[in-house]
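Why run this: before we spend reagent on co-expression, it is cheaper to look at a predicted model of the complex and decide which construct boundaries make sense. The entries below are exactly what would go into the expression plan.
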Amino acid sequence: MSPAASPRAATTPAYRRLSVEERRTQLLEAALSLFAHRAPEDVSLDDVAEAAGVSRPLVYRYFTGGKQQLYEAALRTAADALEQCFDEPPEGPLTARLSRALTRYLAFVDEHDTGFSALLQGGSVVSTSRTTAIVDEVRRVAAAQILAHLPVTDPGPRLHMMVRTWISAVEAASLIWLDEDKQPPLVELRDWLLDHFVAVATATAASDPQTADVLRAALEMEEPDGVAGSLARRVLPVVSDAAHLL
Amino acid sequence: MSPAASPRAATTPAYRRLSVEERRTQLLEAALSLFAHRAPEDVSLDDVAEAAGVSRPLVYRYFTGGKQQLYEAALRTAADALEQCFDEPPEGPLTARLSRALTRYLAFVDEHDTGFSALLQGGSVVSTSRTTAIVDEVRRVAAAQILAHLPVTDPGPRLHMMVRTWISAVEAASLIWLDEDKQPPLVELRDWLLDHFVAVATATAASDPQTADVLRAALEMEEPDGVAGSLARRVLPVVSDAAHLL
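The model came back. Tokens follow.
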């Protein structure tokens, strides 16, 4: 019987007290995974305690402001993760960089579907000026990253408006995509959004000299099998009948 | 003294009791003009009573739900007005029709600046799932009008997504425009949004046969001095150096 003399020691890991920061992270991760796939009103502190395997009083001790505070903290965690999606080294054609960042962004949308919709569609019980500010900060970081990659240090109002409206279009397309059971496939949605970016940049370049300079420099670095080249070859047959406009 | 014998009759209009519907309309108009230029939290029922020249109990009698109910009713009135902006006879080049509708829409944004921002930026004390539903209904009507003008009766997912993301871009651009003290001039903003529409439709046509058919038919009706012709002539010099992509 000697091998079984101390069965608990063999099967139970040594008990280790989590630090305050580790416990907080554990609770936030549990909360985020719940908020990601349920509407905020369908998540209770009991659910979070159960998902994290802790008591409800413990959750309350860490988040004295209750569900609202927990939601905002989980949103802050999600916003940090989303901002990391935009990190991309400044190498290679611009559309290839944008494609990689967009792939990560759309994977995030895919993984946090219900929470993403609830957050951006508004009217949620937990939406406040603070949650709006967190979302706006993510948009600001995304715009700053794109402008840094163009690269532009002093963007004029037109270039800024172009980038910010494209980000809005990406959000709107993501919501529609979630609403339509994630159709078309993520890669097709991404490629359409990349075409969309090149098209809007080109249209803006038509009336804004700064955007025109940026676009010319970006197109020089594009490769024939990249986004811009593929779009140009597919657009030509569509507009070839419109010579009467030139 | 005889001409002044009855001074009140000469200067005061005969008292007429407003019907319930007329009174309601009067209160809603007063509320809408206040909500248009102040944040919802800065409008009280006292303010509405004063603006309409009636007692506060009267306002409460018509809107027993208090400010929230009044706000939602005023929003409903604004939504109706906004939906009328999209009415346009199906005649002439598509971009000319879109230009007229967009001119009316942007004039509405200009006239309801603060209220428009507060409504769409979210996090407002009066935003609820009902206010979100009213705004979504306006977007739905706008998309249906554009699709009817294309004209398409059975839009596929790509065409639908193109139209809906452009509407999001219009909203985002409107908010940025309000935030930047209404710069650039409204006409320049409108013309950029029209270029934006043509560009995104063209990029979508590059990968969607239905959009390609719609675009070809629309371009046939365009005139050289119209939106598409002007855009095409301004785009060519910008992209002419990118022949290596073809």
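Chain B is about 70% helix and 0% strand. The CA atoms of residues 37 and 114 of chain B lie 5 Å apart. Bring this page to Monday's planning discussion.
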